[in-house]
Amino acid sequence: MSGLVLNLRPYEKVVIGGIVLQNGKRRSSLRVVDERAGVLRLSEALHPDQATTPLTRAYYVAQTIVSGDSEEPIAAPVLARLLDDALSGFKGFPFHAEIVAAREALERASYYRVMKHFRPLLIKEAAILADPRVKLPKGETRKLRLATLTATFAVTRR
């Protein structure tokens, strides 16, 4: 038997196919056999107000596809553009390979995998954009990096 197995904590909420479900007072497991079903743990969800940086915007777009809040034919090209911009914007950083892996997951229409690749990068991105001690690639200043990244993504934000 194949499919996604969710191990839910007590009272944990999950969105499956656009419907919010809440677990009972005990731990439980749930198997989702339809691989096309959008499954999103609410603990992994970003609020729209949190989508303020290049990677968080891409993560949020992937999240809206998974949760069913956005239609795939409309949101997937936006996500592709965001990922392509992130690939060029974060070239030279150690986590560039994870962005490449997220782009490959997008090509397979595996939006949850895109989120999974991006989740650990959100903290790293915040550190890069905020910490003046983080070393940038040769020839770039922090102000230029931030201006380039935010200008690139300003067009896609609603």
Let me know the largest β-sheet.
Answer: 3 strands, antiparallel
Q: How many domains, in number, for the residues? A: 2
Uncertain stretches of 5 or more adjacent residues:
151-158
Shape: globular
Mean pLDDT: 80
Which series of helices and strands comes N to C?
EEEEEHHHHH
Determine the structural class based on helices, strands and strand pairing.
alpha+beta
The share of residues in extended strands comes to 5-15%
The value of Rg in angstroms is 17 Å
Distance between the termini: 41 Å
In total, the number of strands is 5
Number of helices: 5
Pfam family, one: FlbT
Keywords: Bacterial flagellum biogenesis, Cell projection, Cilium, Flagellum, Repressor, RNA-binding
InterPro entries: Flagellum_FlbT
Protein name: Flagellar protein FlbT
